[in-house]
Amino acid sequence: MLRLKSADPLRRVYQSLLELLYPRGSHCLCCGHPRLADTTDCLCDACREEIRRLRVPAEACDRCLMPVRKGHPCAFCQSPLMKPIQAVYAPYRYGGAVRQLIHAFKFGACDEARPLLSHAMAESLKDRDFDCLVPVPLHPRRERERGCNQALLLCRDLSAQTGIPVRELLRRDTYRRPQSRLPLRKRQANVSGAFSCRESPTDLRVLLVDDVRTSGSTACACAKALKQAGAKSVSLCVCAVVYRKKPSN
Ligand SMILES: [Zn+2]
Ligand SMILES: [Zn+2]
C-alpha cells in the first residue's frame, strides 16, 4: 500500500480514490482496511478473528478475570483494589483489535462500534441480576471536552438488552488528570476520594459500567463511595480488562 504524508496532495487523491472504490461503511472499524464484501459487517476477517482470540480465557479468575496459576490464590483478588468489588464481568482482554475497536467507539465511530461492545458485555453478564446499572462518571469539564460520557452510552445499551435500569448515582467531584496519562502506581492516589453519591444507593446491588479496567483504581474508588453510602454490593462490567504481570497496589 502507498505510504504518503497526510499533507501530501497525492495522498488526498489516493484517499478520494479509495472512498470511491470502497464507500464509507465498508472499512473495517478496527484496522481501517477497505473491504469489498458485506458492508453490513463492521470488521474485516482478520480483526474479527483477533477479537475472538482476545476473549477472557476460561481459566482466568472467576471473580476478577485476571490470569491465575492453577492451585495458587488470585493475587489481584487479594489486592485492596478488589476489596469493595464483588465481581468483574468483561468479554475481552485489552489489546490489538479490541483496543482499536474501543478507540473507534470513543473517538469517532461510536454508533458502529458500540453495539459490538455492549452486546459482548451483556453476554458476559450471563443472566446475573442487578438492581441498577451505574456509569462511571466523568467530571463535567471532561464530559464537555469529550461531548458525552461513553460509559453512560454503554449503560443505555446494556439496559436495553437486560432490562436493568440505568441510574446515574455517582458524581465526580474533583477534576483530576486523566488516568491514561499517569503511571499505574500513581493512579490509585489520583482517583481516591474523587467520587461521591448524588443519590442514595442503600441496599442496591449495583453494576458499575466503564469501558476499560486498567489498574482497577477508578472502579475501586467508585465502589468505595457506593459501599460507604449503603450499596448492598458493587460489581463491575467493562468492555475489556488489561492484563499485567502484577496487580498494581
Ligand atoms: Zn480489520
Ligand atoms: Zn481474582
Q: Which percent band covers the strand fraction?
A: 5-15%
Q: What is the β-strand count?
A: 7
Distance between the termini: 45 Å
Give average pLDDT, whole number: 87
Tell me about the biggest sheet? 5 strands, parallel
Residue share in helix: 25-40%
| Cα-atom radius of gyration | 20 Å
Which ligands accompany this protein? zinc ion
List unreliable stretches of 5+ residues: none
CATH topology of the domain at 79-89 and 129-177 and 186-241: Rossmann fold
CATH class of the domain at 79-89 and 129-177 and 186-241: Alpha Beta
CATH architecture of the domain at 79-89 and 129-177 and 186-241: 3-Layer(aba) Sandwich
Order of helices and strands: HHHEEHHEHHEHEEHE
The coarse overall form would be globular
Total helices: the number is 9
Structural class: alpha/beta
Characterise the protein shown here:
The chain is of the alpha/beta class and 249 residues long. The protein contains 9 helices and 7 strands; from the N terminus they run H-H-H-E-E-H-H-E-H-H-E-H-E-E-H-E. The chain has helices spanning 9-21, 45-53, 75-78, 96-106, 110-124, 140-146, 150-162, 184-191, 217-228, and strands at residues 88-89, 92-93, 132-135, 170-172, 195-197, 205-213, 233-241. The strands form 2 sheets. Strands 1, 2, 3, 6 and 7 form a 5-stranded parallel β-sheet that branches. Helix 4 (96-106) crosses helix 5 (110-124), helix 5 (110-124) crosses helix 7 (150-162) and helix 8 packs parallel to helix 9. The chain is globular and about 60 Å long. The model has no long low-confidence stretch (mean pLDDT 87). One zinc ion binds at residues 28, 30-31, 33, 43-44, 46-47.
